[in-house]
Amino acid sequence: MEQVRILRVVVASPGDVAAEREAVVRAAEEVNRNTGRGRGRGLRLEVYRWETDARPGFNPEGPQGIIDPFQRIEGCDLLIAIFWKRFGTPTVDGRTRTEHEFNIAYQAWKEKRRPEIMMYVRRQPAGFEDEQSRLVDQFQETLLRVLRGTRLPGSRCPSEYRMS
Q1: CA-based, 20 to 30 A from 109: which of 7, 30, 74, 147?
Q2: pLDDT score for 98
Q3: How many domains does the chain divide into?
Q4: Which domain CATH number covers 87?
Q5: Could you give phi then psi for residue 46, rounded to 5 degrees?
């Protein structure tokens, strides 16, 4: 019997990029149809998202305290971060949920070179600038400073990732 390698993909993003989040799911479904079991390649992508893979409930750490155990970001194979005009909802520690999830992945990557991290920013102009869009810009600038001279395995500089 053929062994199937399962790659855990976590999508981290605020709610204003729902179409892009769905595009990740559709792409994974296509990969699974074309390279999954029965095709001789033994690969399956499993996509985890806060809106489909967490349950409602109460946690002293807020909603993120419920989401984290379901996503298990530190043990995933790939984190895909997607941004546009919102940076996300603040967590109890003052960071946003998306930033929190990205930081978990980045810390794990620094320790064990896993998960791979991809960051996409929607290029369509937001039509306005507010505190949320400024936070997205600041986060990108910080990443560029932190990652200067560092390339995440199998990826390009975060500023090169764009979804149309």
Answers
A1: 30
A2: 86
A3: 1
A4: 3.40.50
A5: -115, 120
The rounded average pLDDT for each run of 10 residues, N- to C-terminus, in the chain (164 residues) is 83 88 90 68 85 76 74 90 84 80 90 90 70 80 65 39 38
Q: What is the pLDDT of residue 79?
A: 92
Domain carrying residue 159: 5-163
- C-beta of residue 110 within 8 angstroms of C-beta of residue 157: no
Other C-beta atoms closer than 10 Å to the C-beta of 31 total 16
54/136 Cα distance (integer angstroms): 25
User: 147 Cβ partners below 8 Å, 6+ apart?
Assistant: 157, 158
Distance, in Å, from the CA atom of 100 to the CA atom of 34, rounded to the nearest integer, reads 33
- Both tokens assigned to 53: 């893979």
